[in-house]
Amino acid sequence: MAPQGGQGGQGGGLSFLFMIVPLFLIFYFLLFRPQKKRADEHKTLIAGLKKGDMVMTQGGLHGRITGLTDSTVTLEIAEKVRVKVSRGHISGRIRSEVRS
Prior knowledge:
Elements (H helix, E strand, L loop, with lengths): L11 H36 L6 E4 L4 E7 L3 E7 L2 E6 L3 E4 L7
Antiparallel strand pairs: 1-2, 1-5, 2-3, 3-4
């Protein structure tokens, strides 16, 4: 049987478009935007590092920054124990512990 009225199924493409656009918006606001925000915050953190900051690496090392170059950070993780770490592997600043 042929569809009556001569317009068999032409409205389907438009309704599909009205369904797919909100899905892309949802993906953008739930997935891509928060990820970009975290990346921007990490770039700000890396740019603001200075000697004396207490930081943690992605591997879990805690240490005080004793030296900086464009690509590396030198951390003192214990007395007279220093390691070089790539700037990109610094995950965050940590508070200095109050010693009594």
